[in-house]
Design goal:
This protein is 39% helix and 18% strand. By secondary structure, the protein is α/β, with parallel strands linked by helices. The model has no long low-confidence stretch (mean pLDDT 96). The structure holds S-adenosylmethionine (SAM).
């Protein structure tokens, strides 16, 4: 379960804005594995509504999609009704910290925007991250690929224009993101070797709707990014008032452009690619 977002509520509107960023990076990473992609079993760990599973299932032999939240899984399942896809996807409700799969049974694991939802303790050395990575390494065959899609601290600071409206929430989410060096050390400790770290500069997690500045006022749009749940009621109200006032003064577009200026060079999310030893 996410430590803060209510994914049962979010499941209803998540797909209104979210798009799978970095598909080419994931495809290339899977190609670097020791098994040919079309013979691979790919685990989508924390699959949510299945936007990545749906986009990638035709490239691999089979996808195992797992998520803790039943409502997110139901959306994923209903999306994959077509027989061709359905036969090649398994849906499991369960936790990525205790994967219900055999040791060395998959060729690839992707975890897209999931790790920061673990209720973890940075000061204790990120024990839940360690447990999840250990499980990923366990189920991967030697030569298999782990792909972790996660924002860096710098991307959180400069890659999302609307985070400027909710600085306390941004600070809160940054505390939930494991620094890259610590992630690398944990991966190394469970038998994974970091191969690459890549960014898709063009991709934004909420697709074209990211540039619809007034959509901040829309609850469904805000549900496309769990950071809003970390804003206190007061911070949220202040942000909504600020957006309304900027729009009334015709200054909302320039506000967005100013705080979006660094994103094209930084991207919003990074992909760490590791190989099982
Ligand atoms: C931001 S969503 C990402 C969903 C999907 N991977 C995507 O990129 O669209 C985070 C997902 O992680 C799931 N999740 C959080 N903690 C989990 C855990 N311990 N085990 C399995 N799923 C988990 C949530 O239920 C939610 O569906």
């Amino acid at each position: 379960m996410s430590s803060y977002e209510n994914y049962t509520q979010t499941s209803v509107v998540y797909d209104h804005t979210r798009v799978p960023v970095g598909l080419e990076i994931i495809t290339a990473a899977l190609s670097s594995g020791s098994t040919k992609p079309d013979r691979q079993i790919l685990l989508d760990a924390g699959c949510g509504t299945g936007i990545y599973t749906f986009a990638l299932v035709d490239q691999v032999h089979r996808v195992e999609a797992i998520d803790l939240n039943r409502s997110m899984l139901l959306v994923a399942r209903s999306k994959m009704r077509s027989a061709a896809k359905h036969d090649r996807i398994g849906f499991t409700q369960g936790s990525i910290s205790q994967l219900p799969f055999e040791t060395q049974s998959v060729d690839g694991v992707m975890m897209n925007q999931v790790l920061h939802h673990l209720p973890d303790q940075a000061e204790d050395g990120w024990p839940l991250h360690h447990q999840v990575l250990k499980e990923c390494a366990r189920v991967l065959r030697p030569g298999g690929v782990l792909i972790i899609n996660s924002c860096t601290h710098e991307q959180l600071e400069k890659g999302f224009w609307f985070y400027e409206l909710i600085p306390n929430a941004r600070t809160a989410v940054m505390r939930k993101i494991i620094p890259e060096k610590e992630l690398d050390a944990l991966m190394c400790g469970v038998g994974l070797t970091l191969n690459d770290r890549l960014v898709e500069l063009d991709g934004v997690l909420q697709g074209e709707s990211y540039f619809d500045a007034e959509a901040v006022l829309d609850y469904a749009w805000r549900k496309g990014d769990s950071i809003w749940t970390l804003a206190s009621d007061q911070e949220l109200q202040t942000a909504l008032t600020q957006v309304t006032e900027l729009a009334a003064k015709n200054q909302l577009q320039s506000f967005m452009q100013r705080y979006d200026a660094d994103r094209p060079a930084l991207g919003q999310t990074s992909f760490s690619v590791a190989i099982k030893n």
